Every structure is written in structure tokens, then in C-alpha cells.
Amino acid sequence: MAKSFAVISRRVLMAGLGVAAFAATPAHAQNDPIRVGFPIVMSGAGAQFGLPVLTGAQMHADEVNRAGGVLGRKIEIIPRDTKLRPDEAVRVARELIVRERVHFLVGTFSSAEAPAVSEIAKENKTFFIAPVAATDRLTAPDALHPYVFRVAKNTTNEGRSAAEIVAKWPIKRIATIGPDYAYGQDTIASFVAHLRKLRPDVEIVDQQWPKLNEPDYTPFLTAQMARKPDAVVSALCCGNFDTLAKQAKPLGYFEAIGHRMLALGEAGSVETTKSLGKDYPFGIWGNAYDAFYWEAGPAHRAYTERLRTFSKDAEPSSWPVQGYIAMQFLVEAVRKAGTTNSEKVSAALKDLTVAAPHGPLTMRAKDQQANRGQVYGVASKDERYPFAVLNPIQYVDPVKFMD
Amino acid sequence: MSTSALLNQAFGGVTMASYLALTAIGLSLIFGVVRVLNFAHGSFYMVGAYLAYELSRWFGPSDAGFWAGALVVACVVAALGAVIERLVLRHLYGKDELFQLLFTYGLVLIFSDGVKAIWGVEQVSVARPPALAGRFEWAGAVFPAYGLFISLISVAIVLGLWFVIQRTRVGRIIRAAATDREMIDALGVNVAWLYTGVFAAGCFLAGLGGALVAPVTAIGLGMDAEMIIAAFIAVVIGGMGSFWGTLLGALIYGQVLAFGILFIPEFSLFAVFALMAVVLIVRPHGLLGSREAVRV
After folding, report:
1. How many structural domains compose chain B?
2. CB-hemisphere CA count at 13 Å for B252?
3. CB contacts, 8 Å: B272 with chain A
4. The complex's ipTM?
5. Does the distance separating the beta carbons of B125 and A219 come in below 8 Å?
6. How far does the CA of residue B129 sit from the closest CA of chain A (Å)?
7. pLDDT tens-digit profile of A249-275?
8. What angle do CA A172, A177, A182 make, to 5 degrees?
9. Residue B211 domain flag
10. Among all residues of chain B, which has the CA nearest to that of A207?
11. Which domain holds residue B212?
């Protein structure tokens, strides 16, 4: 009798404990932080651009948390290293969703990583914002789904912005040089198509396609010089542009084209001008997402000051602004939706406008892409800094040529 | 197409050829004497380039620093090659070539991961020595000084090697060892140390090639694969074990690539491989090669 009582008693105890445990750990309690998974390249190649993007996001999360959080909850960013590889990006994205139970995903850097993670977002119905990836494929009609958004430029509006600038130059012959893969091909193609519309009199005399991360640009440069272009548009990004600039110098390439080059792919960003220092080809045009020396109004100045303090760098990077803006959109959408449910947040994000540091930005409903432009300017010397700054500098708003 | 443009492109091809020849000669030497197809030759080249980068960070840009550094780097890579040969490679001589191929391929993977672990994944660069940073102009074409200098050095190295192999006692022994190893062994020459020496010499040239090409290329992972493929093409076209053949093969490679980029840009690389295939079909031993081991 006593034994069976003990058994029943133990069972009741176990059951009671089980119910209590179940009740005490709900999936997302009301005051738990809002968890944002951040897959980004944090090591090796690309880290010098990926880490600043994370910094920008963390800065905005910090600001929001200090002001009381979102819906009374703090934002927690959980970064993971993608090593700039799509397969690794997919793996960490899944891990963030399944093991870390994040509510949202913000991140990826390359145009190969973003579409891969977009698939994971779709599969798990988790809201995802890409702050940097430019490929049109991400928001193309056949790839679009309710859970993917982009705050970066895309190759179409970058190419067209370039054409708008080049159309004003007094030239007759133009050449292009770009890395032989999706980003290079798409950007140059949209540049050429738009330039033909604006200036049908300009002739495309040469197109060079060195492979990505080509170590020796010399034969491409001499071949291009042989065709005697008046100007060149380049889509070489980051380290590749550094290599080109160094190898072009002894050939007299920039002199041969009168320094009439427009270097896309953020060749005007603070990182690139710093890394080339006095070897930077002063006089060419470059673009960037942001520049700390750009006078763009009180909100931008305030943002730059906060960035200086947060990143402990008096001459901060051009890339944090993208992480920052992505978080701005996320936070505003969650506030508007009043919930962390991905579907409701996605719906709230469409046509939402935020006050980005340089001005208002809207997330278009039709292609889930923000109307993000970039700054363009001429690389000039400045006594204040040992590196080139874009001066004159202008923001090119892509709204008029986004379909 | 103006003359100056053609001159520019041709000179670009010549400099490309000399950068390649520096390293490919070492490959040819090792194959000619030791009879090993050193798949890891491009990796020794890559290590040379990264070591040159490391030294340039310590010493800064200076003429003396650059040349001394290049010699130091070449010696270090030669020592590395000697150690590897002594410890492992010598046990594979006379065995199935597959083992040698697998071993040297394993070296490629080890070196690649080692370089990645030490220097990371980003491309790095080295500046030219200040004395050679300028350029000459002639007939409207531009000739970078550094390229000219390296072309001269390549020719000098081939001449030097030719002299050593053909006109000195050491060279005679090397040629004999390449022809009949057992006989030279019976005559009292320490063949094992000879092979180590030749392998180390080949690696010296690879390391020197890496250090001297460092200022004009982007140093990054993948440069080992690019170099070994280009070196094989040069050696196959020119003839295995023939130094002048390797120089000729490198020259052909450089010119075909340079003018390919100018006239048939989509097919420039294809043209080089197609040429190699044609040579293999028509003259399997290469243009200047023959069945003999070390010829010059």
C-alpha cells in the first residue's frame, strides 16, 4: 500500500514539475530581448568592410536600448561569421534561427551570400534585411518573397547613376573595366544601357573583363589604353581597385585618360582612400555609401559624431551607415506592427519611411528595396587628412531611375 | 592600332614572360635532374612572395632592403625545400610517380593553409624599390623600369645556369647524375646530397621569383595555383629539362596572352591552352626539348 502510494505520488510530482516547467519557459516572454541574428563576414577577406557594418547596427541598437527599447524590450544583436562564403552564411543563419531562436535576420555582405540566406529566411518565415548585397537577383520578381528586404543600392541603380554623371562629361569615347562576375557584368550592363539612352553619340570603344581578384591588370590596362578612350568607368571594388591603381601608375594609365574615370564599387570610400594613401589616383570620380567629411545636415553631423565615439575612430568608415539604416528600418517596422511576428513586421515595412542620417529613405512595396543612393565625388587632396576625400561631393538620388 | 600600342602590349608580354621564367626555370631544373614533377613549385613561389611582404613591413621601402630581402627570402625557401627533400621526398625516388605527385600535391594544400593561417585571406602588396619605380618612354610606348630590370635578370639567370651546367665540373656531375644515377653513384659521388642540392636550387629560384614578382602582382591565396599552371604551360611548350626551352615557352605564353587580351579578349586564356595542346600533339617533348635529361 505504501509502495503504490509512493509511486503515484512520484508520478504526480513528476507531472506537476513538468507542467510547472512548461509554464515557466514560454518561447518568447513579454520582456525578453528582441533577438536579431547578424550573419556577416568577420574574418579574412571582406572583414574590413563587414565588421563596420556590424558596428553601425550595434550603434543603432545601443541608441534604441538607451531610449527604452522597442515595445518595452531591448534589442540584442547576435553576430556570426560567414567567412564571406554562402554555404557558411546559410549554416550560421540556420543556427541563429533554430538554436539561438532569433526573431529576425539582418546581414550578409556579398551578392552570393544574400540570395542564399534569403532562401533560409523564406523557408523559416523569418524576416531578413540585406544591408549591403547589390545583386538584382535578391529582389527580382521570381525570387522575391515576403521575408526579404534590401537597404543597399542595387546594380541597376548604380549603373544608371553612373550614366547620369558621365552623360555630363565632354567625351565621345568611353571604355569600361569590371570584374568578370555577376556584380561587374550587371553594373556595367545597366551603365551602358542607360548611357546609350542619354548620350547616343558616345561610343563604347573598349570593355575589359579581368577575373575577380585578378593579380595582374597590366595587359588589360595597356589593351585599354591602345583604344584611346576619353573616359573609363570601373566596377572594381575594394582590394581589386587598390591593385589596379598601383599597377596603373607606372603605365601612365590615368594620365592617358586625363583622370576621367568613374570608379564604382565604393572606390571612393574612406577605407579605400586610406589604404591607397598618396597612391590614390587623385582627380578621378568615386562613389561611397557615406563619408564622415560630407556636410549633409544636422542629423548627419550628429550621426557622424556618435559614430566617432562609438567606433573610437576620428575618421570613421563609410560602411557602418548601412548596418545602421537596416536596424532603423527594422525597429520602425516592429514599432508600427506592435509585434515581433515576422509576417506582420514585413507588412508594416512596406512603404515605410525612416529618417536615415542623410535624409528620408523609403522601403518600396513593389520590390522590397529601399531607394538608396550613394555619394559621388572627385577624389581630391585635403590638408586635414593624409588620404583623398571626395570633393566636390554630391548625393545621387536613384528614385528617378528605379523602375 | 598604332605602333606604340603594339609595342606596349608586346613589352607587357615580355615582362609577364620574365616573371614566369624566373620561377619556371626552377621547375625545369628539378624535373630535368631529380626527375620529380614538383607540383608544389607554385607554393614555394607563393611563400617567397609572402615572406618578401613580411620583410618589407619590417624594413620599409628601400633599394638595399629590397634586394637583400629578396636574397634572404630565396635562401629561406631553398632551406625549406632542402629540409622537405631530405626528410620525405628522397624516400619516394624510384617509386611510382603517383606517390611523388600525391606528396607534392599534399604540400600544396599544407602550404596554402599555412599561408592562410599566418597572413589571412586578404590580398597584400609590396612596393617597388624606389630606384626602379619609374618608366622609360620610347617611340610613344611606355616601358616600366622594373619590368625591364626583371627581364634582364631572367636572361642573366638562364645564362648563369647554362654556364654552370655546361662549363663547370659541378654541372658535368649534375648532367651525369641525370643520365645515369647508378654509375655516378658507383664513381663515388654522393648522389643523395646532389639531389638535395638541386632541389634546393630549384626552390631558391621559386622563392626568388616570388620575392621579385611581389611588387608587381597582388599577393594572395590562389597565386600558387596560377603560377604552377603557367609554369607547366611554359615548360611543356618549351621542353622539359631545357632552360632555353623554358625561357622560350614563357616568352610565347606572355606574348599569346598579351595579344590575346588585345585582339580576342574572351579567348585570351583559351588561346594559350590551345597552343599548349597543339605543341603536345605535334612535338610531345616541347619545342626545344628532347628525351635527354638536362639540356641547355
Report:
1. 1
2. 25
3. none
4. 0.73
5. no
6. 13
7. 888 899 999 999 999 999 999 988 988
8. 125
9. yes
10. B265
11. 25-221
